[in-house]
Amino acid sequence: MDTLWYLARLTLALVLGLGFARALGAERFTRAAAYAQTFLVWLLLFFMGINTGGIEGITSQFSSIGLTALVLTLLGVGGTVLVSLLVSFIFSPPAAPSGIAIARRKEQSLLRMAYDILKEPLLLVGIVVLGLTFRLTTPLFSWFKSSFVTYLLYVLLFFVGMGMVHRKISFKGVFSDIRIILLPIYTIVGTYLGALVASVILPYTASQTLGMLSGFGWYSLSGIMISDLGFPILGSISFLANLLRESLSFFLIPFFGRLGSRFYYPAACTAGATSMDVTLVLLSSHFGTRTMLGSIYHGVIMSLAAPLLIPLFF
């Protein structure tokens, strides 16, 4: 019920933004809304770092179970990319129109290309690390409460709704493309494929690795839920693994965006549940605003799936 209420509030924020922009007129405050989205993404990431640094015993968790979480993350994301790429090559051949707008890329040196690919994700992850450092080393943010991040998401979704009106995005056609409808399936199958491989490498059962990766990037939910089910160590690992997945998506989305429209599928699936909020602006900026609805749909379904699937494995 809490998950449904959370999704309802996010949807309400988006709808309010849509209504506000329609009431004002689609041509007004276009640039201001775009700047607000960028600023809110940066602020949100900074406070995510602050929030993470405030978790009791977080430093010892990183040192003791970080390697396990990293292995889980890499295998889960690797399986997701593999499955979604396979689907994209089957169902979206080069001759078929994808409806994804990719900016043209000039010929340039490998060093310049690497810089263009990495500069944005490094900036975004750097903002998170900055927030984490401030919380761990100074008392400046002792007043911070984790609920502030949720409020920021509501404001961000409000401006995203305005942006959809400004770009004349319509909800029509979301369910007319079977490839978009199946996006959550690609994410689940790929993540679980990686989890099964992890169970062979790590000293955990298949049920445990499947459960730990069932957050699909929703780290706060997965960690708390698994701990409440009586597995605090697994909950800590799941928290870090899903946090790392979200962080890794900041690198991979711009990287996939540079490779072409076909790579929207692995980009969205890597983002997991965050494709409807934290990474939504990043996805739309690299793959065009016409993908925004698919990203929101994917994130909503993954957010609904996580709390339903996690208890099945414990």
Task: Explain this structure.
Helix 3 (58-91) crosses helix 7 and helix 10 (232-259) packs antiparallel against helix 11 (264-271). By secondary structure, the protein is an all-alpha fold. It starts with a helix and ends in a 5-residue tail after the last helix. The protein has one domain. The protein has 13 helices and no strands. The chain has helices at residues 2-24, 30-53, 58-91, 110-137, 147-166, 178-181, 183-201, 206-212, 219-228, 232-259, 264-271, 280-287, 292-309. The chain is globular and about 55 Å long. Mean pLDDT is 81; it is low at 93-105.
Q: What is the typical, i.e. mean, pLDDT?
A: 81
* Number of separate domains: 1
The shape is globular
* Topology as a string of helices (H) and strands (E): HHHHHHHHHHHHH
Number of helices: 13
Number of strands: 0
Proportion of β residues?
under 5%
The biggest sheet, with number of strands, parallel, antiparallel or mixed sense and barrel status, is: none
Whole-number radius of gyration? 19 Å
Q: Which oligomeric state applies?
A: single chain
Stretches where pLDDT falls below 50 for ≥5 residues?
A: 93-105
Report, as a whole number of angstroms, the end-to-end distance.
20 Å
| Helix-strand category | mainly alpha
**What portion of residues is helical?**
over 70%
